[in-house]
What does this fold into?
Amino acid sequence: MRRIVLAAGISLALAACAKKGADPERQIGPNPPLPAISQYLVPPMHVIPPTPWGSASPSVPADLKVQPFATGLAHPRSIYTLPNGDVLVVETDGPPEPIHRPKDIVMQMIQAHGHGDAKAGMDIILLRDTNGDGIPEVHTKFLSDLNSPFGVALVGNDLYVANTDAIVRYPYQPGQTSITAPGVKLVDLPGGPIDHHYTKSLVASPDGSKLYVGVGSNSNITENGMDAERGRAAIWEVDRATGAHRLYATGLRNPNGLQFEPQADTLWTVVNERDELGPDLVPDYLTSVRDGGFYGWPYCYWGQHVDPRVRPQRPDLVAKAVVPDYSLSSHVAPLGMVFSFGAAALPSRWRSGAFVGEHGSWDRGHLNGYKVVYVPFANGRPAGKAIDVVTNFTNGQKAHGRPVGVALDKTGALLIADDLGNAVWRVSGR
Amino acid sequence: MPNADSQSIVKIDRPLHPTVLGVPFVCFVAALITDIAYAQTFDVIWKNFSDWLLAGGIIVGALAAIVGLVDLARPSVRSNWLIWPYAAAYAIAMILGLFDNLVHSRDAYGAMPAGLVLTVLTVLALVIAAFIGVPLMRTAVRKVVR
It folds into this structure.
């Protein structure tokens, strides 16, 4: 009898260990090892509750220093630096998602455990640091009453804000600390009533004629039906003058951090891949975006690996799926990215690559993400292992903060939006 | 005439559980229909129906199980030996139903084919319980045993 109990205990322990996940370092790079698919009675989960920063702060390597740029914000998620140095911080959150199945009730309770109580401002704050000491003197409300905004892009005197359901254009004059003029809608974007992935990342093309917007999927893997995914899991190309749009690239489950790599004028993005196939599936990734490229979602991942949960299958689409450029490892939840070629306030070793804000995992026994990493680039492509730059957002049991969007300020320092700590952090050279 | 000391009266009472068996039974049978529809059509609306029916089935099934436990606590119910295979069949159905709910928490077709198999097995166990329930309810009389 004792042997049976011992065997059962060991099996359970092994099963629990299997949900923790292997060392994420193994999966970082262009050729991540991909384990076999596991499906579960209860998927691996580790959601940690928030705790205030207090006197603690994030950690950086010895040649950098980190200071709070702004605190006491209302769920800041995305940052945009205007040409005159003013910093726009988007305070936002998603609309509540409807309950479609019993699982939604349980999952919403579990996810709520990891979120703070702060209500999002649904606005954009302007911060101005006139003397360059890293402490803004001016803090004004730039734009209010927005609808789950995320992406911002300025072209000339046209300021574009990507709400979850539309791109809206406002007139902007340099030096303005707030905009009172009404916005003009450029184009509708897929929004509610489900809006599972609501963040609409936005970037203008280098010549300023087009806008690229990331539209995330409306589910994990089509469990809300294929109709709900029309126009989703894609990067749209929108003509700035007319609002005409087309799908520039598809099959990207939740693309964010849209940025143009300055040396080759190529569009790059970070993508949040799917859940509940195991702690080490599917790796989130950083990739260049090909015009007309199909990147797999929902039918397959990392090239031709078929997801058995999606029916009817499409072997024709699976065959032409593009393999992404660089894996960041699984469940890190990358939500922001900025190229560092203009990071003049940082030592030179940080100035030829990309910073990625990793919001952090829930679908894994051992936590992953909850940090900002640096991916070195060479000849316009990632070259080498990602390096942890800003850490200590969590101590493993609780989370002080979670990085989301990243941007460079006018001095070339790195700014990080922290939506759990309700702060913006500024990283510069020591 | 028999000696009064050698007589013993065994009281047998009807259990309450078979009268409420129908509630989880209907939930799981309906879930079987929606599971088959999902497996045939891949339309997620059928999967959502299944998820709710299975959740409802296990919740009312658990409430019925409480009724069954009250039944088992009564010696007059336990004295009918048929209560044991009946209770075993129902307990197996509830365990299968619980696993079925967990498998159905997977997204989209990830719940298949295990979800359909478990629903079939759960309904089978409930049908067996129902069949045992027929003679079980019929033998509920006061019996005199020597």
Summary: Chain A has three helices and 28 strands. Chain A has a mean pLDDT of 95. The radius of gyration of chain A is 21 Å. The interface with chain B takes residues 39-42, 100-103, 106, 219-225, 276, 308-312 of chain A (CB under 8 Å).
